[in-house]
Design a protein that fits this description.
It is a single chain. This protein is mainly alpha-helical. The chain has nine helices and no strands. The radius of gyration is 20 Å and the shape is elongated.
Length: 193
């Protein structure tokens, strides 16, 4: 370490990029900004990563590594519900990562463990194997939709379209997700093969 700087490598680059994304969001994440934070130029970064797309892949994989594990307590249905609620809560703390995931062209090899666990949990809870992949995708899309759409109504409705006595608020987005997720899981588990 010369001049008190860290030795530049992929791990340092990813950790710095993650700090930027956590603090200022994905739009603030540029290779120029990462280089600036590391007191180096973009050219030095290219010795370790190809481009911003690869950096996003590394970031997505870094976040996926910490996706929740299947709980050991409770019946199979409850463990499934707890797993998905934990995934919601974890990704809600890293909303910038949700945008990378939802874009769909980034692969995160570390996410495979979560997918396998979630598929197995569906089967254990009673979902027929041929339907488990569809159930997993439905739950994943529900999760991403809840995290991407922060508007309490999901869209704008003016007072003329909503009766005054109906309270459309999402004071607890996790509870909103849990309500929808529970109904989706119950529907998936009731669906005949």
């Amino acid at each position: 370490m010369r001049d008190g700087r860290q030795r530049l490598n992929r791990n340092v680059i990813v950790a710095t990029a993650r700090r930027i994304a956590e603090a200022d969001g994905l739009d603030a994440l540029t290779l120029r900004r990462v280089g600036h934070e590391l007191s180096t130029g973009q050219a030095s970064l290219y010795r370790h990563i190809t481009d911003r797309h690869e950096l996003l892949e590394l970031l997505a994989d870094d976040v996926a590594r910490d996706l929740p594990r299947l709980p050991t307590e409770g019946d199979a249905r409850q463990r499934l519900l707890t797993l998905w609620r934990a995934a919601h809560d974890y990704l809600a703390r890293h909303r910038w990562a949700v945008r990378i995931i939802a874009d769909g062209d980034i692969e995160a090899p570390s996410a495979v463990g979560f997918a396998r666990t979630a598929l197995a949990a569906l089967v254990t809870a009673g979902c027929p194997e041929p339907q488990a992949l569809r159930g997993y995708r439905a739950l994943w899309h529900l999760l991403l939709g809840h995290l991407l759409n922060a508007h309490p109504l999901g869209h704008h409705l003016d007072e003329h379209h909503v009766e005054a006595h109906v309270a459309f608020t999402a004071d607890d987005p996790g509870a909103e997700f849990e309500w929808a997720m529970t109904r989706l899981v119950d529907g998936i588990l009731r669906t005949p093969s």
